Amino acid sequence: DIQMTQSPSSVSASVGDRVTITCQASQGISRWLAWYQQKPGKAPKLLIYAASSLQSGVPSRFSGSVSGTDFTLTITSLQPEDFATYYCQQANSFPLTFGGGTKVEIK
Amino acid sequence: EEQLVESGGGLVQPGGSLRLSCAASGFTISNSAMSWVRQAPGKGLEWVSGIRNNDDTTYYTDSVKGRFTISRDNSKNTLYLQMNSLRGDDTGVYYCAKGVRGWNMDVWGKGTTVTVSS
To answer: Best interface-test mutation with B: which of A94, A97, A98, A102 has the largest number of B CBs within 10 A?
Structure first.
């Protein structure tokens, strides 16, 4: 199975800050990586697919990048509605696997 | 609007069975890869099972192989998850999700809660 190591597990930030979350795959997954946002008691929401493609309707302050097996989600100018937990997910091979999550909290 | 609505969760004793349903609207499930994803209380997301759109090939995470079965009824536009030999670590919220551009999940239901306890 492909392990997805996500870091940090939590981050405290202020409105307007830039936040970076990383996910490392245990083996090559090409660009088969998605990012999701989840708020308490709600279903996850797809933000980014294919490592860097923005899902329709998602604000452009969200972006994704990749270097080898290291993937990054960046939120520029954090907004109040962005405080949530973020997960990466590899879509390269079965079983599909998620990272452990990163909780973005208000500083 | 594309929507998914799960049902069938509940309280079940260890060793028992449940069948979850996921009714789709606004799209045809036979045209999409579909997945079940669960979340244990206070924990992260765990993909459980998926079914491919073009040939109905099914996939499972190791911990549910031989116990869970994913299927779909195209005439009802509904996805199912038959869960047998349930264990305490199967407890959680179960979401169904529609795949886009492969196995990225762009439409999610609100989830149904499964509690396995005596």
So the answer is: A94
